[in-house]
Amino acid sequence: MSLRHDDRVPFEKYHGTSNDFVIVDADAFIPNRGAFATTYCDRDTGAGADDLDDVTPDEGGRVGADGVLFLALEDQYSPPRVIMTLVQPDGSTAAMCGNGARCAAAWAAGRTNRREVMVDTQAGTRRARIHADGDVTIEMGVPSFSPRDVPLARDEPLVAEEVEGVEVTAVNTGVPHAVAFVDDVAGVDVEAVAPAVRHAGAFPRGANVTFASRTEDGEFVQRTFERGVEGETRSCGTGAVAVVAAAKRLGLRDGDGPVAVSPPGGELEITVPDRGTATLRGPVVREYAGELRRRPADGA
Known about the structure:
Elements: E1 8-16, E2 19-25, H1 33-40, H2 50-53, E3 68-74, E4 81-87, E5 93-94, H3 98-112, E6 116-121, E7 124-130, E8 135-141, E9 161-163, E10 166-172, E11 176-181, H4 190-198, E12 208-214, E13 220-226, E14 231-233, H5 237-249, E15 259-262, E16 268-271, E17 278-283, E18 285-293
Parallel strand pairs: 2-3, 4-6, 11-12, 13-15
Antiparallel strand pairs: 1-2, 1-18, 3-4, 4-5, 6-7, 7-8, 8-17, 9-10, 10-11, 12-13, 13-14, 15-16, 16-17
């Protein structure tokens, strides 16, 4: 039985280095955003699954997503502003998502024909620039090791200390990260090791857990277990910034120049200056579009 038009809401699917998001205009009425995100982020039955809404992803697309971006465009400003709310697969919201913010900027730029966009997030307002090659660079704020900002259940920064058997450095890059530098990031059993760190008592609000290896040319390979996704994602922009910030704190990297960080989904370019805001640059791809039920079958 077909759905009435007013039972459906349009969406688009974007990804930044395979960190993928369902995008919905925030003006659309969604009775329960948490249930909506939990349902349509599911990797087996979520957005793009044939048996849901007859949406067939383009070649290379994946069913489900790492989150839902509810975006409100305010194009009367110069540069235009887009208000971003990220609801994660577990129904929670995240204050910041680097790749999500880059996708939001590309979405807004496509509707305004502008190369610069301001993205309003719960972690602050970030300026984004869309490059001629399709890359998007976004400001990421100033990384903080302050126990209050991370936050930590202690009064001193957590730098190169063991938490649940893993040596980590805690930094907030819009969201909290526990960064562990290892010899071979490919050899880490992320799904087995990361959850204990993610839920450790040192992090009263939990933490994303990012593993990184330094290459011979001073770049980094990254893998991240994301809080709210509760699993490893193919890319994490805040995690890539956290890697470079922690590397500088530990003396593994110096200078203000760009650093390549490679999660499984592609390559990101990070700058973490000694003074001023960090930046995140990488590609953004619009995958496909369709319609979804406003009220998922298993949601209110």
